[in-house]
Design goal:
The chain has 825 residues and is α+β, with helices and mostly antiparallel strands. It has 13 helices and 46 strands. α1 runs parallel beside α6.
């Protein structure tokens, strides 16, 4: 009971008529929601990870989240970045957690701190520092004393850092919620009795830190009181079993806005409609009061931070894309959802809940307040649209949709009716690197057995040898060959890539995939009579990030055979005298930096694009403007890129998805990485690629499209205006307000109307092919151009009268506008 008493010391238990409330200084909770300063709250949260962007980007990202209706910014804490060696801490630059939390506070947002310290997050080694691997008798994430010692040290370090800066809400700061561990239920059974006892220990440990705010454990349905269990996934409105106590609120810690992408895998596109449907369902059916979007901004896995096979761009399909640009309609549709739900706050948080059927696959969730407040969520689970009757009114519900009625009468939002504009992102090359005179090249050294100082009588394990200091590990051996015939080399590896060299000549490569990590290299080789040298380069593309007993996972080359025409002419070299070397020579000298680049002799690029393990360097000036910048590395193979000594991440353009396109071609170059001129660009290319064809591009939103349907036939659409429970005005007409609003990014204006039709056009905003229908108002373009050209923001007139006349009476009308943005002249 000791840990429970620690919680009681820091909070007061208040017995009320509806159950027991956990009351702290500023942030508490009950069975309905978090309570901030004595007020129940419905909160929308967005994950934005500070190391996946730059400090200069943080204010804009947070501001755009705020504008999108986000109340809370959620972030993991990245142990392996903050404590690269035991007791040595780094909180500088992109790792300045205090600065990040203070920026959240400065913009009036709350913060959720997911300390973990294990985070997964498609982050190398799940965020655990690799030096843990060599701690004697350690078992990660178990009731194991060595692991608990270091985990508690780091957790306490972070909590004390936050306390020292008065960043917890109990101190007047923005942090209202913290998390310990992460999705532990996925692995708990593997640890047998050491799993549940570890969960209890972790809960007791953090409650004892007395932060004055609640703690959560996601996907941990047996989270010990007073820690809140929460849901992760895409459909928590359907899958969440609910809090494990009636005194805890329903919290959704990760609502996946898309999914991470891997090299060789295609991006996953999750629609705005699907996200909105499941958010509304969670709030209505599960009494949900906190929803976090994972990710709201994904960002970039700079350096070697991505986990196994994960691309450098992270969750680019989030409401804010990798570069921080608003992705429509996802951002705007969710913004409207947030506003609609907030209109329902009083009955949702204080009302009596009932639900009942409206049809075979239709239902109503109704919240009735004591003072007559009423909010309803009308759900259509069918794959077809349906008309339902609710409180003597008829409502048309599109397939798989939810309508929100803040007054139980007027629909102000439907999850399937998207009125937000669509936008299109484009790139424009601003710097080319096609002149070979501007490039220099250096081929890394391929070591032979005699040139390596480290020795082993068997194949060393990759991760335990490199200790995450490099992606690369050389394995070398030499042997006497008395046969003149060609032979075959077989290399079995649990690394991600293997490159093979015979007598310093490149002979081939093999690689695995995210779903099939191991690989086998099989190739013919020509050997000299006498002594021969075999050099094998094992490559990791990030470390594993999940699973039980992570400390036991292995990688690297497992078996090496050379096979001749018969058994007598074949040999297994697995247990043999091996030389090995960690990393490449260029890494050792840091030739990607300004100072380190002078450590080797560079030469003209020549025909080096056909050679393996090539380093290329050039310089460029920073382009003008403030649009995000990317390197288009579509003509490269596999490697890593640096700008002014800072790694912008691994690239692997040659690993293509099934349709033949590269998994990723554009690699973010944050403008804060640049100087006005003479910026150093260095590429490490493993096995091919043409740097003369790469470009530096700007990324911007250049096109947007707006669509509104169901326009009424009367000259002026009849609207009903009501007042919400908190005095906010709600506008509706048992359907969505038909409107088209277009907005260019800051600094740009609408410069061209590409398509405009008032009538029954086809194609919609999700298609680039817009077609005039049988009904079309001929003066649509004139009306739209007058309303929009030269403006950053415009609204298209909503009434038929604005277009002069009804071009085709008795036919339902729509407005479709496609426009182009450009910089102000």
């Amino acid at each position: 009971m000791g840990w429970w008493l620690c919680w009681v010391v820091s909070v007061v238990a208040v017995i009320g008529g509806s159950g027991r409330n956990i009351v702290g200084e500023d942030v508490t909770y009950d069975g309905r929601s978090l309570i901030i300063n004595g007020e129940r709250r419905i909160l929308f949260s967005g994950s934005i990870h500070y190391p996946r962007s730059t400090p200069e980007m943080w204010p804009s990202l947070i501001a755009k989240a705020k504008e999108g209706g986000i109340d809370v910014i959620q972030t993991y804490v990245f142990w392996n970045q903050h404590e690269p060696q035991p007791g040595q801490y780094n909180f500088e630059g992109r790792l300045n957690l205090v600065r990040y939390i203070k920026e959240i506070q400065a913009q009036g947002r709350y913060a959720t701190l997911r300390i973990g310290p294990f985070i997964e997050s498609e982050w190398t080694y799940g965020g655990l520092p690799f030096w843990l691997h060599d701690v004697k008798d350690i078992v990660y994430r178990s009731d194991n004393e060595p692991f608990k010692f270091y985990m508690q040290n780091f957790t306490t370090k972070i909590v004390n850092l936050m306390k020292s800066e008065n960043l917890y809400a109990s101190q007047g700061g923005p942090i209202i919620l913290s998390q310990i561990e992460n999705e532990y239920k996925n692995v708990e059974a593997a640890f047998h009795e050491k799993g549940p006892s570890y969960v209890r220990w972790a809960a007791e440990m953090v409650v004892g830190l007395q932060t004055g705010v609640p703690w959560v454990m996601c996907k941990q349905d047996d989270a010990p009181d007073p820690v809140i269990n929460s849901c992760n996934g895409m459909r928590c409105g359907q899958t969440f079993a609910g809090p494990n106590s009636p005194n805890k609120p329903a919290i959704w810690t990760e609502n996946w806005t898309s999914q991470y992408q891997v090299f060789g895998g295609k991006p996953y596109i999750r629609s705005a409609e699907d996200i909105a449907f499941h958010v509304a369902l969670f709030i209505a059916a599960k009494n949900g009061s906190y929803v976090n979007y994972y990710m709201y901004h994904g960002g970039t896995n700079f350096g070697r931070t991505g986990s196994a096979y994960v691309t450098t761009g992270y969750y680019d399909q989030a409401p804010l894309d990798e570069y921080g640009l608003i992705r429509q309609p996802k951002w705007g549709h969710l913004k409207e959802l947030h506003a609609a739900v907030k209109l329902c706050s009083t009955p949702l948080l204080w009302g009596t809940y009932t639900n009942f059927s409206l049809g075979e696959l239709q239902e109503a969730h109704v919240f009735q307040g004591k003072a007559g407040e009423c909010a309803a969520f009308l759900v259509n689970n069918s794959s077809r649209s349906s008309t339902v009757n609710f409180q003597n009114h008829s409502y048309e519900l599109p397939q798989k949709s939810i309508s929100i009625l803040p007054d139980c009468q007027n629909e102000v939002f439907n999850t399937a009716k998207v009125s937000s504009q669509y936008n299109t992102r484009s790139t424009v090359p601003v710097t080319t690197f096609k002149s070979s005179d501007h490039w220099e090249a250096f081929q890394d050294v391929i070591p032979n057995f005699e040139e390596t100082s480290l020795r082993a009588d068997k194949l060393p394990e990759h991760m335990g040898t490199t200790m995450d200091k490099s992606d690369y590990l050389w394995y070398t051996f030499s042997f006497q060959n008395d046969s003149s015939s060609d032979k075959r080399l077989y290399v079995n590896s649990l690394g991600h890539v293997v490159h093979a060299f015979v007598n310093n000549l490149y002979i081939g490569s093999a690689h695995g995939s995210h779903d099939n990590v191991g690989s086998t290299l099989e190739t013919s080789i020509s050997l000299n009579k006498g002594m021969n040298n075999i050099s094998l380069l094992s490559v990791m593309v990030g470390l594993p990030d999940s699973g039980a007993y992570l400390e036991r996972k292995v990688a690297g080359i497992q078996r090496v055979r050379i096979q001749g025409n018969d058994e007598a002419d074949s040999q297994d070299f697995t247990d043999y005298s091996w030389g090995y070397k960690v990393g490449l020579l260029g890494e050792q000298f840091q030739i990607y930096s300004g100072e380190g680049s002078h450590e080797v002799q560079w030469s003209n690029i020549g025909n080096s694009t056909q050679l393996p393990l090539m380093w290329y360097k050039t310089t460029f000036d920073a382009p003008s403007g403030d649009d995000p910048l990317v390197l288009n590395l579509g003509t490269m193979g596999k490697g890593e890129a640096w700008v002014n000594g800072q790694s912008i991440g691994r690239y692997w353009s040659s690993f293509r998805i099934p349709n033949g396109d590269p998994s990723q071609t554009l690699y973010h170059v944050p403008r804060p990485f640049l100087k006005p001129s003479a910026n150093l660009l260095v590429l490490l290319e493993e096995f091919g690629g043409d740097p003369l064809q790469i470009t530096l591009d700007t990324v911007s939103i250049t096109r947007m499209c707006g669509y509104a349907s169901n326009l009424h036939l009367s000259p002026v659409t009849p609207w009903v205006e009501i007042m919400s429970n908190r005095g906010r005005r709600i506008t509706g007409h048992h359907g969505r307000r038909p409107r088209v609003q277009l907005e260019c990014p800051s600094g740009k204006v609408i410069s061209k109307i590409l398509f405009a039709s008032f009538g029954n056009p086809s194609g919609g905003c999700e298609s680039e092919n817009h077609i005039l229908g049988s009904c079309h108002s001929s003066n649509t373009r004139v009306v739209v151009e007058k309303a929009c050209l030269g403006k950053t923001l415009c609204s298209i007139p909503r009434s038929i009268r604005s277009f002069g006349r009804d071009p085709c009476p008795d036919i339902p009308k729509a407005i479709l506008v496609d426009a182009e943005c450009s910089s102000r002249t």
